[in-house]
Specification:
The chain is an alpha/beta fold. Helices cover 35% and strands 15% of the residues. The chain has one domain: Alpha/Beta hydrolase fold, catalytic domain (Rossmann fold). The chain has a 7-stranded mixed β-sheet with strand order 1-3-2-4-5-6-7, sandwiched between helices.
């Protein structure tokens, strides 16, 4: 079930789905899936993350049966909405709770824009929500797209392009299954294709970048450029997996992010 905010300044429904609460002194991980992803995209990873961590899944509109809400087509707009949702969610919890924004592919961009929104809300208005980012599968927001836009391609051409771009065989269900929610997929891809980083977009949050050896969609230089969008540290960690590791290598991803979080807390 979606969590609904009591803040009249935040549109309902909330785009967050609370999967489980954190144990005392443990952080909550907010998971931002890939383009076309849903709460189901988080399922395998959620089962692999230790129970002590709280888990929240981002649930954008337009990807559930009967959902008539329009999916957002601009990452900055979605980030502002999600920033409000995250702030409202954590204002109802104990103070000082740590928040990890975990994003893969388009989810990495959304995590960044959500972090920007949270930082802007805290500027001059009390202590910020203690956040950090763990991202993968997406260029630094400071860089323009390296490839031509694809969100407007005919369906079969779009499937072929996605399979080629992410190293998947033609007809792979990872891609073709997304076309059950084609409008949402195209909206997410449009947000990726049209995104340009705004001036003053620097964070002060630590960013860990997962470099996936079998993911040819993004170069190491594009991943290292995440340093351009934060004044804090950026660490690149290698993983031997492809572009959709939450479903193909959930245990390896879980082990890596737990080690990074625990190391950062020490």
């Amino acid at each position: 079930m979606h969590q609904h905010s009591s803040d009249p300044g935040i549109a309902n429904p909330c785009w967050l789905n609370v999967l489980r609460e954190a144990e005392p002194d443990s952080p909550i991980i907010v998971c931002f899936p890939h383009a076309g992803g849903s709460v189901l995209s988080v399922a395998k990873l959620a089962r692999s993350i230790p129970e002590r961590f709280g888990l929240v899944a981002v649930a954008l509109p337009g990807r559930e049966p009967g959902d008539q809400d329009q999916p957002p087509r601009h990452a900055a707009t979605a980030g502002r909405k999600l920033g409000g949702d995250v702030a409202a969610l954590f204002n109802r919890r104990r103070s000082g709770e740590r928040v990890v924004l975990l994003g893969n592919s388009y989810g990495a961009l959304l995590a960044f824009e959500t972090a920007r929104s949270l930082q802007a809300m805290s500027d001059g208005a009390g202590p910020p929500l203690p956040i950090r980012l763990i991202v993968s599968g997406f260029r630094s927001p400071s860089l323009p797209p390296a490839d031509a836009p694809i969100f407007g391609l005919p369906s079969q051409d779009l499937i072929a392009e996605l399979c080629q771009r992410f190293g998947l065989p033609a007809g792979d269900m990872t891609i073709t299954g997304l076309f059950d929610i084609e409008d949402a997929l195209r909206a997410d891809l449009e947000a990726c294709d049209t995104y340009r980083c705004r001036q003053g977009s620097t964070l002060d949050a630590r960013i860990d970048v997962l470099a996936m050896a079998q993911d040819a969609s993004v170069s190491r230089a594009e991943l290292q450029a995440w340093q351009e969008v934060t004044t804090a540290s950026v660490v690149v960690t290698d993983l031997d997996c492809g572009h959709f590791p939450w479903s193909t290598h959930p245990e390896a991803v879980a082990d890596t992010i737990v080690a990074l979080i625990d190391d950062g807390a020490s």
